[in-house]
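Chain particulars:
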Amino acid sequence: MTPSLYHCTLGCVFCWRAQSGDHNLRWDETRLPQWDDPEDIIEGCIREQKRILTGYKANPNADQTKRLEATTPRHAAISLAGEPTLYPHLDGLIKGFHRRGFTTFLVSNGTVSETLSSLSEEPTQLYISVSAFDKKTFTQVCRPHVPDAWKKLNETLELLPSFKCPTVIRLTLARHVNLKHPEVYAQLIRKADPTYVEPKAYMHVGFSRLRLNGSNMPSHMEIRDFAAQLSNEMGYNILDESPDSRVVLLSRLEKPIKLT
């Protein structure tokens, strides 16, 4: 789910979501709306989760055990599209999910460091996307809509060690775009001292097809080679990988922390 569907501080070339300018539709992504109340968002998400599952109840081929499990969700990924740290009631959203027994996985591009630093309740796990190894590449690949976005990202990386929850640096990597210089990425990541590092392949889906080509999508072997170089640079272990998703998980841990 996301509290900020059409609003973001960046216009990353690899992003699958609709951005201002796609198909000649334009809006100001930094002109923020009148926001919904956290409780309304949470109740709406749970209601819609149940609604989209209704057709499976009468389907004889559906696994009814899994259907019933899906009608009582326990995990909220505050991600999907837009930048959730633009939402001014993020603290209340996290607390509201936690009160209902949910885990929360917050995914941010790190450019609104002041929101993260002011959270009174941490998410269950915090992901920060790092999609460039230097300011020049960041400007070309992430196309910031706000000033000092690179500086803000670095502030967030320096803030991450203060979090008690598990933290993740996620790298979305596109061939001929930002899939290079693992040693420079390592310098950035060291600031954050994350629990995990997750290099993953750009996927040629959604509106990103207006900006990149299928040839920009790396193979799993390319991602694994990049992850191995990061592992050597940082002393992180390769804990797991998913060839189908073209993603590798790195950590200093011997095995991932199980979050329930």
